[in-house]
């Protein structure tokens, strides 16, 4: 009896086979829409002085910055060949060989820091508090991020290490492992995986779902709880970077690092294959970036707690009363007069 689950083969990356519309792209739309709705709700419940046009403009620039940063970071950090260095115009070109392939390869960390930079610039241009709008972004983004990892799951990519755990799942495109290695046959026996040749596809950790749950749902619930309880302006920004970095750093131990990158830092050298074990003192690219995120989160919390005007404004009272111009005032006066005449 198999202790693992097979990947749902009826799930196809293309929404309609043959058409260049993929679930992964649709998940991005869901992610942006979710973040927008949650941000808009905070603006309304706090009576924050921001118009619908301002909100749409800010999100438009934020989304564009996120995509550009995520794509550039992916090609600079995770691409080991010189393909894009020789042909940089292809970085944002979604066609290859006459086929629409989309933008394959997006880095969360690049998108996060580019998005943060865009919010800082927007706040500077509009002369509004970065700490205020940053906190509202921090309470909106994580739940949207959940859809991005669901898109990775549908694509059957970014799966984790081989495992004998009941949570394991056999992904159809995972690299088959040689049965000549004892740990491979051991996991196959424990999970009831049938061996029919010299290589076998073992169950893997569905790390995309781990990330969707912890970095998305759990982190969002934590920050959303503190949105009306934060001790100072900017607190949620620091909590977001610290929380995401922590969850992702831990989950990276269940993910298999890119085969062409491996571990960037190894304090203790090991001959164990990356598909089998992730030594405690070996760190992947993602873990290094997450450590920097946590460091930034801690430093920002210290700095933000000491900045002037750090007192939290729960509701902007001056924005509660709508601004009435002369034309609107005249219409209201005439409406009241007609009521009296009746």
List keywords for this structure.
342 residues; mainly alpha; 8 strands
Entry summary:
The chain has 342 residues and is mostly helical.
What does this structure look like?
The chain has helices spanning 23-46, 52-78, 83-86, 108-126, 130-138, 141-154, 182-191, 207-226, 235-251, 285-304, 326-341, and strands at residues 5-6, 95-96, 99-100, 169-170, 177-178, 199-200, 265-266, 282-283. With 342 residues, the chain is mainly α. It has one domain. The protein has a two-stranded parallel sheet. A two-stranded antiparallel ribbon has the order 2-3. Strands 5-6 form a two-stranded antiparallel sheet. The longest helix has 27 residues, at 52-78. The model is unreliable at 319-324 (pLDDT under 50).
Topology order in helix (H) and strand (E) letters: EHHHEEHHHEEHEHHEEHH
Q: Please count the helical segments.
A: 11
Domain count: the total is 1
Largest sheet: 2 strands, parallel
How is the secondary structure organized here?
Layout: E1 5-6, H1 23-46, H2 52-78, H3 83-86, E2 95-96, E3 99-100, H4 108-126, H5 130-138, H6 141-154, E4 169-170, E5 177-178, H7 182-191, E6 199-200, H8 207-226, H9 235-251, E7 265-266, E8 282-283, H10 285-304, H11 326-341
Parallel strand pairs: 1-4
Antiparallel strand pairs: 2-3, 5-6, 7-8
Helix pairs in contact: 1-6, 2-4, 5-9, 6-8, 8-9, 9-10
């Amino acid at each position: 009896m198999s202790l693992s689950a097979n990947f749902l083969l009826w799930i196809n990356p293309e929404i309609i086979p043959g058409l260049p519309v993929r679930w992964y792209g649709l998940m991005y739309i869901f992610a942006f829409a979710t973040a927008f709705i949650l941000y808009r709700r905070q603006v309304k419940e706090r009576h924050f002085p921001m118009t619908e046009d301002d909100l749409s403009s800010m999100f438009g620039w934020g989304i564009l910055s996120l995509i550009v940063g995520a794509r550039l970071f992916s090609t600079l950090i995770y691409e080991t060949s010189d393909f894009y260095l020789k042909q940089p115009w292809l970085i944002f070109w979604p066609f290859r060989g006459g086929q629409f392939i989309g933008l394959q390869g997006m880095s969360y960390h690049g998108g996060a820091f580019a998005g943060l930079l865009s919010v800082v610039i927007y706040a500077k241009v509009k002369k509004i508090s970065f700490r205020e709008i940053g906190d509202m972004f921090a309470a909106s983004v994580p739940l949207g991020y959940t859809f991005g990892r669901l898109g990775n799951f549908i694509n059957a990519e970014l799966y984790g290490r081989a495992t004998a755990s009941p949570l394991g799942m056999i992904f159809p495109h995972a690299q088959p492992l040689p049965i000549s290695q004892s740990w491979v046959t051991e996991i196959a026996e424990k999970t009831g995986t049938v061996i029919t040749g010299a290589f076998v596809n073992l169950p893997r950790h569905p790390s995309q779902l781990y990330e969707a749950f912890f970095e998305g749902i759990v982190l969002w619930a934590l920050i959303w709880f503190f949105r009306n309880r934060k001790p100072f302006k900017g607190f949620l920004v620091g909590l977001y970077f610290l929380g995401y970095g922590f969850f992702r750093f831990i989950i990276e131990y269940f993910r298999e690092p890119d085969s062409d990158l491996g571990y960037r830092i190894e304090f203790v050298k090991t001959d164990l294959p990356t598909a089998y074990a992730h030594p405690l003192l070996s760190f992947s690219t993602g873990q290094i970036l997450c450590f920097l995120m946590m460091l930034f989160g801690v430093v920002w919390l210290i700095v933000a707690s000491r900045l002037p005007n750090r007192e939290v404004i729960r509701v902007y009272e001056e924005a509660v009363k709508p601004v009435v111009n002369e034309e609107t005032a005249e219409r209201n006066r005439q409406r009241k007069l007609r009521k009296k005449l009746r």
